[in-house]
């Protein structure tokens, strides 16, 4: 690992500039939440977060986004519970399977 040393003027301090890391590791929980195969409501989650950012975290202005996310979670949880009951694995359908389910249902039911 290569480092650069710079000396502060009129000082005994030495500043070491380390090269920046090219890969940034996220915590495992964050990685799982950002994985479209695990989180079926990723777009709804991102939309509600974006709404909060744009509206200075005024929750009342983003209630429709929260409701859409809640309904999304409810819908996919019911699908997951039905698959578990029927013995289908994985319990949560993959992104490709979810697209087929949504086409069969007639787009987004939430």
Top keywords for this entry?
about 110 residues, mainly alpha, two-stranded antiparallel sheet, about 5% strand, COX23, Coiled-coil-helix-coiled-coil-helix domain-containing protein 7, COX6B-like, disulfide bond
Quick description:
The chain has 110 residues and is mainly alpha-helical. The protein has helices at residues 28-34, 42-54, 63-86, 95-105; strands spanning 4-7, 14-17.
Task: Label the structural class.
Answer: mainly alpha
**Domain module count:** 1
Helix content: 40-55%
Strand order of the largest sheet: 1-2
Euclidean distance between termini CA atoms: 51 Å
For the largest beta-sheet, the strand count, sense and barrel status come to:
2 strands, antiparallel
Query: C-alpha Rg, in Å?
Result: 23 Å
Note the run of SSEs as H and E: EEHHHH
- Percent of residues in β-strands: 5-15%
Give the tally of β-strands: 2
Number of helices: 4
**Low-pLDDT residue intervals, each spanning 5 or more residues:** none
Describe the structure.
A hairpin with a 6-residue loop joins strand 1 and strand 2. The protein has one domain. Strands 1-2 form a two-stranded antiparallel ribbon. It is globular. The chain has four helices and two strands. Helix 2 runs antiparallel to helix 3. The protein is mainly alpha-helical.
In terms of topology, how is this protein built?
Elements (H helix, E strand, L loop, with lengths): L3 E4 L6 E4 L10 H7 L7 H13 L8 H24 L8 H11 L5
Antiparallel strand pairs: 1-2
